[in-house]
Design brief:
With about 325 residues, the chain is mainly β. It has one domain: Beta Barrel (AttH-like fold), CATH 2.40.370.10. It contains one helix and 19 strands. β5 and β6 form a beta hairpin. The termini are far apart.
């Protein structure tokens, strides 16, 4: 049985199944990230889809619908499984808000893309192997799969079409997802070439810290066992750069430096309105020796209820 399927929920209201994709095209300097999530016990499905542009602005859409069918189509965004554990079709057709310094403008956006996995799916259970780490991760979708891949196709923005040949990442997770339970999480993806990439999660909860992820090079995917990260912020609290020390299952330590190129900030409020977390979805450039790589660096930070506006840089 393949893993690219819907799973049976337990009885907790915030049990969630999530499908997420991102891509960065170096030639056009275009970055996309998108997600569809299901909460079957609340009969809800939700989406977000954003495009970060070379001029530092971004366009995006967030929305939700009644669940109905357990499909992966929400407000113009659609994910279709072509080959289990390898190939997906991603499409969008509709309007997005183009957020600029002069305020939001409506933009017509269409894309048709194909995600093709470039290595086997990585199961976070390779990193979260003991009962205590599994317990700590229960608030943030404890079942978690990652895959690095290529993303090819076309995107049209207000009639201007770009042909994309990008690298990116997808994840598929299921379990209870409470956006406001962690004190913070850091989720990083980076690709240096079609043969070399990495993924990192560092989850900070009140009871401790969980490290997970992989480094893929020389045709081998190695589990990460320890992740050191030092983050520098700008005055607004937005991550600006960070340094990484990644220890894998063989004891190899890799050091990387990253700078944030641009970002989108999205608020997530608890159902009762008492708590808000802000997720900074950033495009990062990574330095690994003489190599340069790019990918999404995501920071979910617990915030005050009043901090609820999206912003970009």
């Amino acid at each position: 049985m393949h893993t690219d399927m819907f799973h049976e929920p337990n009885d907790q209201l915030d049990w969630n199944e999530s499908f997420y994709f991102n891509a960065y095209d170096r030639v056009h300097d275009l970055c996309l990230f998108m997600r569809i999530g299901h909460k079957p016990n609340r009969q809800e499905k939700s989406m977000f889809c954003f495009v970060m542009l070379p001029d530092g602005t971004f366009m995006g859409l967030r929305g939700e619908e009644r669940l109905g069918h357990r499909d992966l189509c929400v407000q113009g965004l659609s994910f279709e499984l072509i080959e289990p554990e390898r190939t997906w079709s991603l499409s969008f057709d509709g309007q997005m808000d183009h957020v600029t310094t002069k305020g939001p403008l409506k933009a017509e956006v269409f894309f048709s893309l194909t995600f093709e996995g470039l290595h086997d799916i990585y199961d976070y259970r390779r990193s979260v192997a003991d009962a205590e780490k599994e317990r700590l991760s229960q608030v943030a979708a404890s079942e978690h799969l990652e895959q690095f891949g290529s993303v090819k196709g076309s995107i049209a923005i207000d009639g201007k079409t770009y042909t994309l040949d990008a690298l990116g990442e997808r994840d598929h997770s299921w379990g209870v997802r409470d956006w406001n339970a962690p004190r913070m999480w850091v989720w990083l993806t980076g690709a240096f070439s079609p043969a070399e990439a990495f993924n990192v999660t560092k989850l900070y909860v009140d009871g401790g810290v969980v490290d997970a992820g992989f480094f893929h090079e020389a045709a081998k995917t190695r589990a990460l066992t320890s992740i050191g990260i030092d983050i520098a912020y700008v005055d607004t609290g937005t991550p600006a750069s960070f340094d990484l020390a990644l220890t894998d299952e063989d004891g190899t330590i890799r050091t990387l430096h990253a700078r944030v190129m641009r970002h989108v900030a999205m608020p997530f409020m608890s159902p009762d309105g008492s708590r808000t977390s802000v997720m900074y979805e950033t495009l990062a450039e990574y330095s690994y020796g003489t190599k340069r790589g790019y990918g999404i660096a995501e920071f979910l930070i617990r915030a005050n209820p009043g901090n609820s506006s999206a912003e970009g840089t």
